[in-house]
Amino acid sequence: MNELEQLLGCNYPWATNRAQQALQIKAAVEANQITKEQATELLQDLINTDQLDKEATDFSVKTQLVNAVTNLISILSNVTSIPGVHI
């Protein structure tokens, strides 16, 4: 999640907002507020939108965001739900 936290400090609101949303989704899974499946859908929506293509002004930052969110999706799909265990 370090990649997402790094994006919080970048100068691109489109990246900062999506990184913040991804971290909030991760926290919601950890708090058992949403399922892994719901989280996966929400995370995919963050990176699979035409809006991202329109807003992304820096290709390397966009790539970093997409990779970080994709990594989080992968982690979620491989973790079994264990209360008290943080992703």
What does this structure look like?
There is one protein chain. This protein is mostly helical and 87 residues long. It has one domain (2-78). It contains five helices and no strands. It has helices at residues 2-7, 13-30, 36-47, 50-55, 59-78. Helix 2 (13-30) packs antiparallel against helix 3 (36-47) and helix 3 packs antiparallel against helix 5 (59-78). The protein is globular and about 35 Å long. The N and C termini lie close together (9 Å). The model has no long low-confidence stretch (mean pLDDT 89).
Counting H and I runs of at least 4 residues, what is the number of helices? 5
Which percent range fits the helix content? over 70%
* Mean pLDDT metric: 89
Q: Largest beta sheet, briefly? A: none
Beta content: under 5%
Structural class: mainly alpha
Query: What is the N-to-C order of secondary-structure elements (H for helix, E for strand)?
Result: HHHHH
Radius of gyration: 13 Å
| Tally of DSSP β-strands | 0
Instruction: Please tell me what the overall shape is.
Output: globular
Distance between the termini: 9 Å
Multimeric status of the protein: single chain
Give the tally of structural domains: 1
Name the poorly predicted regions: none
